[in-house]
Amino acid sequence: MTQRLVGRPAPDFAMETVSGDGKTFGKASLNDYKGKWLVLFFYPLDFTFVCPTEITALSSAAEEFKKLDTEILGVSVDSIHSHRAWINTPVADNGLGQLNFPLAADITKTVARDYGVLIEEEGVALRGLFIIDPEGELKYQVVNHNDVGRSVEETLRVLQALQSGGLCPMNWKPGDKHLVAQ
């Protein structure tokens, strides 16, 4: 049986990464993001069809996330070499081009499993997106079927609501009033 993640410490991770410009390999762990917000998102595979629409949209919005003291890390079960090849492939040829955040390789599928998004029988992750606060608490998760892309605008809205520190009603946006607990 799957256990809930929201409201608990985010599962720890350590993965190899490739920089968004495709030039350098590195490593990323949950501890690297301590003191910052993190949008950790999983996608099924490199060189697929829906994934580049999400990844490039998040990359285009990276400055908005940075203004909110938030880092972005993309994860799939592909290798760092596959990630690098995809980043270095032109967008016109189903590539990503340069990104404003790194991609991490979850070759062992451990991280996808720990976050509850691994499709065991296929060996790929569902489209899972997690927002982790600066103390490492998992505050938000959304998991989509792999045929449906996620919304950058909704991710930003939820992040801003979480950062607002108040009770946020449905469709809350920055500048809206918080609910008052009675």
UniProtKB/TrEMBL annotation:
InterPro entries: AhpC/TSA, Peroxiredoxin, Peroxiredoxin_AhpC-typ, Thioredoxin-like_sf, Thioredoxin_domain. The keyword Oxidoreductase applies. It comes from Paenibacillus aurantiacus. Belongs to the peroxiredoxin family. AhpC/Prx1 subfamily. Its EC number is 1.11.1.-. The lineage of its organism: Bacteria, Bacillati, Bacillota, Bacilli, Bacillales. Residues 4-164 form the Thioredoxin domain. Keywords: Antioxidant, Disulfide bond, Oxidoreductase, Peroxidase, Redox-active center. This is Peroxiredoxin. It holds the Pfam family AhpC-TSA. GO terms for molecular function: peroxidase activity.
